[in-house]
């Protein structure tokens, strides 16, 4: 697995960055595409649903994991 790299996102009109491994970033983009969303819109949804004790990068990783575990990636292909 690749080391985490910073990626820029815009949430609620504010720029932020998250550190994600390339594999999770690719999965995140595939998830957004499968749902018909841009990455900023999907990140905003994930951000709104996460608990305050969970960081955004962790919440994105968990969402990507759930996306693939649920078979959502295969169902939309």
UniProtKB/TrEMBL annotation:
Gene3D superfamilies: protein bp1543. Residues 4-66 form the Ribbon-helix-helix domain. InterPro entries: RHH_dom (IPR027373), RHH_sf (IPR038268). This is Ribbon-helix-helix domain-containing protein. It comes from Rhodobacter lacus.
């Amino acid at each position: 697995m690749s080391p985490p790299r910073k990626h820029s996102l815009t949430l609620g009109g504010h720029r932020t960055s998250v550190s994600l491994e390339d594999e999770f970033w690719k999965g995140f983009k595939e998830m957004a595409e499968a749902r018909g969303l841009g990455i900023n819109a999907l990140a905003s949804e994930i951000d709104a649903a996460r608990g305050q004790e969970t960081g955004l990068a962790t919440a994105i990783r968990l969402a990507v994991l759930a996306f693939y575990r649920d078979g959502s990636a295969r169902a939309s292909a």
